[in-house]
TrEMBL record:
Residues 90-244 form the PINIT domain. It is found in: Nucleus. One of its GO terms (biological process) is protein sumoylation. Belongs to the PIAS family. GO terms for cellular component: chromatin; nucleus. It holds the Pfam family SAP. Pathway: Protein modification; protein sumoylation. This is Protein inhibitor of activated STAT, 4b. Keywords: Metal-binding, Nucleus, Transferase, Ubl conjugation pathway, Zinc, Zinc-finger. It comes from the Eukaryota. SMART domains: SAP. The lineage of its organism: Eukaryota, Metazoa, Chordata, Craniata, Vertebrata.
């Protein structure tokens, strides 16, 4: 087996980002990050789990990669890469656990609900010498598509473009020097270039381009795509979409993605049990009620399915931020946290409802109760300090309360190693948040005063 692993590790070197991402997503792992991160994740998987399915998937992809390389070598110089993947390895084929398709699958965009396909994914084929290319497409709208556009202001006809050479899901990417015309009229494209260098692609996000303003509802439309050919192949498509707002998504999340209290409680007790240094039994598990993104008290606490931390962030704010700039990155652990994977923490919802407006942090205790540990610093009311002593029982707690002495804490050191500041932009304001899952602090000794306690790794 170990030579298999070694062989597969060597094969990985030949794979591309899209292929590494495909492998990781098939193995249920995060596929975000740079190539070296993806590589490390796959290598770790190979070494630790040594899954035969993963081994054969690596071999399969490597074989395909070799085939496409050979094809490229044998053909006369062409600016376009030849994709010589077999047309869809059938999923019932027991030899390949991964299905490989020639047609790229455009990533699902939560803010654009696809209603219909107007122009199915089609590759951009360079027709002229030199870099600048013009590719024309003709399409017309069906009666039902016309009606949907006329009757609903949030329905649009949009143009999307991504790399062709992908297997698995592909993010939108504009080619260099893109412009899009419908019936000879220019469409508005919001795009920024990171440099003036020839052949630079516009930076992501490359949003779907709205074709609606220049569209003929009943005549044939001519779509012209001007683009720079610098050796990459792209695929274009036109879809009928409904624009979805962050508020719509929040409502949807509230209807369909609330994690049951029982599951939330189980996660807390697992965290309490798995504490390696047994610190938590004396300090509890701290969870901030302040959203790490908005720096304000959360109203709809959520996290992604793949998040290993208890700390939540505010769903409403997170969705608004991604509406402005789709990053879909968890503000706590920085993993890919797409809309489909968000879950509302109903236990923390209850905590937020039942504790005072000025509470900033709570801790879960080993008897599955919780108590507030930190109040708004601006609050100078001494009476509030007393309030901290009140222990809040979590609803349906089957056990009686166990008094845990929370008054002892150790040194005066405060260390924030590994603390990281990440900036993000909301409108014209810059918002900073701290990667708080790994901040470890030890607060000053104050006997008989249950002030802030050790912040342990959540
Ligand atoms: Zn996370
Ligand atoms: Zn309280």
């Amino acid at each position: 087996m170990s030579t298999d692993v070694l062989e597969a590790t060597v094969m990985l070197e030949a794979l591309r980002v899209t292929e590494l991402r495909l492998l990781l997503s098939q193995m249920g792992k995060s596929k975000s990050g740079l190539k070296k991160d993806l590589m490390k994740r796959v290598v770790d998987l190979l070494h630790n789990e040594c899954n035969p399915e993963l081994l054969s998937a690596v071999r399969e992809l490597h074989k395909l990669r070799q085939v496409s390389k050979d094809a490229r070598r044998s053909s006369k110089p062409s600016p376009v890469e030849i994709i010589s993947m077999p047309a869809c390895v059938s999923p019932e084929n027991p030899q390949s656990p991964i299905s490989v398709c020639t047609e790229p699958q455009m990533i699902k965009l939560p803010f654009y609900q696809t209603l219909d396909t107007i122009l199915p994914p089609t590759p951009l084929v360079p027709m002229y010498e030199g870099a600048m290319q013009n590719s024309d497409f003709m399409f017309h709208l069906s009666v039902s598509q016309q009606a949907q556009i006329q009757n609903n202001a949030s329905v649009e006809c949009v143009f999307r473009i991504c790399y062709s050479e992908s297997i698995g899901v592909e993010e939108d990417q504009y080619p260099p020097n893109i412009s899009v015309l419908v019936n000879h009229a220019n469409c508005l494209i919001e795009c920024t270039y990171s440099s003036n260098k020839l052949g630079t692609e516009p930076s992501r996000p490359c949003r779907p381009i709205d074709l609606t303003p220049n569209l003929y509802l009943t005549f044939t439309n001519r779509l012209s795509v001007l683009w720079g050919n610098f050796g990459k192949s792209y695929t274009v498509a036109v879809y009928l979409v409904r624009l979805v707002s962050s508020q719509d998504l929040l409502d949807q999340l509230r209807r369909t993605a609330v994690e049951q209290q029982e599951l939330c409680r189980r996660r807390v007790s697992e965290k309490l049990r798995s504490d390696p240094e047994n610190e938590i039994s004396t300090t509890g598990l701290q969870v901030s009620l302040i959203c790490p993104l908005a720096k304000m008290r959360m109203s709809v606490p959520c996290r992604a399915q793949g998040c290993a931390h208890l700390q939540c962030f505010d769903a409403s704010f997170y969705l608004q931020m991604n509406e402005r700039k789709p990053r879909w990155t968890c503000p706590v652990c920085h993993r890919y946290a797409p809309f489909d994977e968000l879950l509302i923490d109903s236990l923390l919802c209850d905590v937020l409802e039942s504790c005072g407006e000025d509470e900033e942090e709570i801790e879960y205790l080993s008897d599955s109760s919780w108590r507030a540990t930190r109040h708004d610093k601006s609050d100078k009311n001494k009476e509030r300090v007393q309030h901290q002593q009140i222990k809040h029982q979590v609803n349906c707690n089957p056990m009686g309360s166990v008094i845990v002495d929370l008054t002892q804490s150790s040194s005066d050191d405060e260390d924030f190693h590994k603390e990281e500041t990440v900036s993000t932009h909301l409108e014209d304001k810059s918002v900073h948040f701290r990667k708080c899952g790994i901040v470890k602090t030890t607060k000053a000794k104050k006997s008989k005063n249950p002030g802030p306690k050790q912040l342990t790794k959540l």
